Amino acid sequence: MNASMLSYILFSCLLLSVHAQNCSVREIIRYTNRLLEERSLGCPCRETAGSSCSCLPIAEPGHELACFVEGTEHMRQNNLSSNTIIEWLNRIFQAQRDRNLCESLARGKQCQYKTKGNVKEFLKKILQTYQAINK
Q1: Cα–Cα distance between 135 and 133 in angstroms, integer?
Q2: What are the residues whose beta carbons fall under 8 Å from the beta carbon of 85, sequence distance 6 or more?
Q3: Can you say whether the dihedral through the CA atoms of 98, 59, 22, 20 is positive or negative?
Q4: Counting Cβ atoms within 10 Å, is residue 122 exposed (0-12), middle (13-18) or buried (19+)?
Q5: Residues 6 or more apart whose Cβ sits within 8 Å of residue 50
Q6: With 0-12 CB in 10 A as exposed, 13-18 as middle and 19+ as buried, what is 44?
Q7: DSSP secondary structure of the chain
Q8: Half-sphere exposure of 94 (CA within 13 A, CB side)
Q9: What's the CA gap between 67 and 113, in Å, rounded?
Q10: pTM above the 0.70 mark?
Q11: What is the rounded distance in angstroms from the CA atom of residue 62 to the CA atom of residue 89?
């Protein structure tokens, strides 16, 4: 292995460790707050087929990323919110889950939850989770 290859590997490791430490926390908090400002998010969660309000998983500890992926995927497919932001959040959560980029969250690969909530409750869970990391 030559010196330039070693430099590249060290630089890549440095970038990964920096990204793993911050978990895109500030961006996730900012975009989640932006989504929470939308008016149509607070309707009650009903799991009946005739309901226009979605019920999204409120994650158990250790399964946040898997549930965030599942919930944002549902939001994206059903055009429940600003699609560009939801698309971005979904990709970030997938990357964090699949590559273990956010060590304090990346444990459970399956979404496990005891309750479901509406879009607003789901977004508040995202916000609380990343605000706790940001402290």
Answers
A1: 6
A2: 31, 34, 35
A3: negative
A4: buried
A5: none
A6: exposed
A7: --HHHHHHHHHHHHHHHHHHHHTTHHHHHHHHHHHHTSGGG-SPP--STT-SS--EEEEPTT-HHHHHHHHHHHHHHTT-S-HHHHHHHHHHHHHHHHHT-STTT---SS--EEEEE-HHHHHHHHHHHHHHHH-
A8: 10
A9: 8
A10: yes
A11: 18
Token pair belonging to 112: 């496990």
Number of CB atoms found within 10 A of residue 4's CB? 8
Q: Tokens in use for 73?
A: 């995927």
Tens digits of pLDDT across the chain (135 residues) = 555 555 545 544 444 444 445 589 999 999 999 999 887 667 777 665 555 678 899 999 889 999 999 999 999 888 767 789 999 999 999 999 988 888 778 677 899 999 999 999 999 999 999 999 887
